[in-house]
Amino acid sequence: MSSMDIHSLIAAWALNACSPAEAGLVEAHLPTCPDCAREARRLVEVVARLSGADLRPPAGSLARTRSAARRRRPPATATAAYAASYAAQVAALDLLLTDLTAADWRRIAAYGELSVHDLVAHLAATDGLIAGVLGLPVEPLGDDPATRTAAVLDRERRRNPEQTRRSWRAQADAMCRSAPANPPLGVATTALGPPLCLPDALTARAYETWIHREDITVATGRRPLPPPLPGHVRLMAELAVRFLPQVVSRTAGHVRLELTGEGGGTWSVPLGPSLAGVSRPAAVVTLDVVEFCRLAGDRRDPDGVAAEVGGDTGLAREFLAAVPALAVVP
Amino acid sequence: MGMSVLRQQRSTEAARDDARLRDELAYGDEAAFTDLHERFAPLVYTIAARITRDGRAAEDVTQEVFLAIWQRPLDYEPERGSLRGWLAMMAHRRAVDLVRREEAHRRRALDGALYAGAVSRGDPVGDQVSDSDAAERLGAALKALPAHLSRAITMAYLEGRTYREVAAELGVPEGTAKSRMREGLRRLGLTLRDQR
């Protein structure tokens, strides 16, 4: 069908008055043709106003719809504010996982050897380290991500993917429900590598859950879900930035890191033991906050990432190259 | 500057709000779902009621529209248009599908001489969506149109006819049915824009 023919169908399409096959043609055409897309947008808006909006659904309709929604897709579990980014990442990964086929679960998704099924077991294993901190019973035991992952993989490989998904989600939900409203001060765990307080540990879990969700999205060829919400990506970026001085070390000076986009911000990253007396940054690095988080999660090539550098560009490039070495996100 | 710039700004902000709401749904935010329902349930329900003329069916259609975006938030693509327009289209599509299925069912039932049982519809929505009311409501928007244009749109929108059925029923070529829908919507768009 020619593009002219498709154009003549747009009004009928907006009125749901063409065949399903024709509707499919129109919908496939729209992203490729700005003129038709503009016409479609305009006509859809006109059709949307034909009925008005003056009737109200019967009383109780929202409550009934909400409980049906919970049954079809469990929402992010209510939790303390500092754990909300983790609860959100769990809900988004679960949305992706519930859509996968048996063949998808077998695809290799990360580290060249872990299937999607293995990766979910790995997430559950590492989450378990924090579940233990929250006082939840955790089986099998293990004090670091590698040991626990080995033990959990051994168990989960004998289960089917649906059982693994359910036990991962059940543990995550229990963690959200157990997170105290006021988190304890001080170091809660060293199991993820660096010493972390409880809010940081949960942000680190949110971060890894997101990064692996993107791994699974790519491995299974699904449409990508949006990157973390601005408030959540900011927490992740902040966490990553705090560990940057440990990966690039100089005697003095600092790099100004300007992370753009919603949830971004500007940070001075010290390269040596002291910032005293140094007001001008030795280098300036500017990049998108979500891309920065992917870089720090070792999912972007430092040479390929779209970043602007200023000042001592050699230092800036060295700084960018060192970012993926961050240990906080395994 | 003037109205067009202001309108442009407003639509950019509205587009950002729509995208944000969609993203919150993707992240399983139940408060966002409640917000979505509160903002758009009257629109979705009104469309479903106009088309199905059946309270129970309209409530079912409304619920399915909201459950669908909760389960498949990526189906709504903010870069393609407003959330309002998309939800309205989904509501209309589901309502029309229901009416067409019922129509097919009724025809089968008539063939089998089972007329009496099969034609009874569920609870009527009551006088708030009687045929005359719906016609009047649409009529207000369609009044300015020449009869041949408003007829094509009414048959498609309210009665759930495809453009092929409209063409056959009116005895005009299919291309004419399509272009009447297009011209009718184009003119309605101008009228509605002036009313804004």
From TrEMBL, chain A:
It comes from the Bacteria. Residues 87-216 form the Mycothiol-dependent maleylpyruvate isomerase metal-binding domain. Pfam families: MDMPI_N, zf-HC2. The keyword Ribosomal protein does not apply. Residues 5-37 form the Putative zinc-finger domain. GO terms for molecular function: metal ion binding. Gene3D superfamilies: Anti-sigma factor, zinc-finger domain, dinb family like domain. Keywords: Transcription, Transcription regulation. This is TIGR03083 family protein.
From TrEMBL, chain B:
Keywords: Sigma factor, Transcription, Transcription regulation. Signal peptide: none annotated. Coiled coil: none annotated. Residues 36-103 form the RNA polymerase sigma-70 region domain. GO terms for molecular function: DNA binding; sigma factor activity. Residues 136-188 form the RNA polymerase sigma factor 70 region 4 type domain. InterPro entries: RNA_pol_sigma-70-like (IPR039425), RNA_pol_sigma-70_dom (IPR014284), RNA_pol_sigma70_r2 (IPR007627), RNA_pol_sigma70_r4_t2 (IPR013249), RNA_pol_sigma_r2 (IPR013325), RNA_pol_sigma_r3/r4-like (IPR013324), WH-like_DNA-bd_sf (IPR036388). CDD domains: Sigma70_r4. It comes from the Bacteria. This is RNA polymerase sigma-70 factor, ECF subfamily. Belongs to the sigma-70 factor family. ECF subfamily. It comes from Paractinoplanes atraurantiacus. GO terms for biological process: DNA-templated transcription initiation.
